[in-house]
Amino acid sequence: MTEQHNRFMPVDSNGTPRFAGIATFMRLPHVPLEEAQDVDIGLIGVPWDGGTTNRAGARHGPRQMRDQSSLMRKFHPSLEINPYQLANCADLGDTPVNPVLIEDTLSRVETFFRQVVDQGILPLTAGGDHLISLPVLRALAERHGPLGMVHFDAHTDTFDRYFGGCKYTHGTPFRRAIEEGVLDPKRTIQIGIRGGLYSEQDDVWGLEQGIRVIRIEEYEDLGMNAVIDEIHRVVGDQKTYVSFDVDCLDPVYAPGTGTPEVGGLNTLEAQRMLRNLIGLNLVGGDVVEVSPPFDPSGNTALVGATMMWEILCVLANNIGRKGGR
Predict the structure, then answer these.
(1) pLDDT tier at 325 (50, 70, 90 boundaries)?
(2) N or C: which end of the chain has fewer CB within 10 A?
């Protein structure tokens, strides 16, 4: 372990208690993007929910997830790794956003992530509503080409328009990503899909493009291990993104979200599936739709921070296995 790596370690909780100090993701150093040349994995907030169509509040997600992430420790006993010994990890702060203009925000976020990707940093993002995944995918695809995706969600997010003309909402990001050629539908798998639809046509478009959709009933029928095998089969060994919407979980585990759907995954199932993404060629990930106003207890933000930690460990393990960036 070099001195360069050591300066990116989380604050030592034996020296500074976890309730003290300025909140950053996983208590990591905050490193401005212009000084992040040595960073391997950048944890980034996108505090914006302008794509939300009903229950807003996810703009507050990154701040509370930073706070709750102080409960994360350094060593992952199930994976038997310390991610901070495998990769330089840092909190790169929040992207610029425009709280009132959707397309301006998409442009600002994409510009930020282009700078991240140009430096060879793997982005791990806290939303924000699910529309924030679109500019991240745009930036990554500019470097890597069309990406595969492992997508945990209650909803497919492949709807077309809202109120007749709006193309950009938290229900449309992956339709736009496929149309723009930044997401490969045939290497995309969606897990945990459930809930009522506006019509029987709502999910047809995605299926026609070749997305592998595992509704919650099929998940129960197949079992977790078979679903994990299907994930690896679908995305293969090419560049892949992981997107985790907390509403994939049953709302008893994550009530603080914009579009809760009963009958979802539990937190242990989600953790185990994320851990089994080890070996995939991941180039980034996100955790979205944590909406603190709908969960004053902070439990949903703790769940979101924990899922970020799981993805962080997988990304770091992959970097360590390759011997660096």
Answers:
(1) low
(2) N
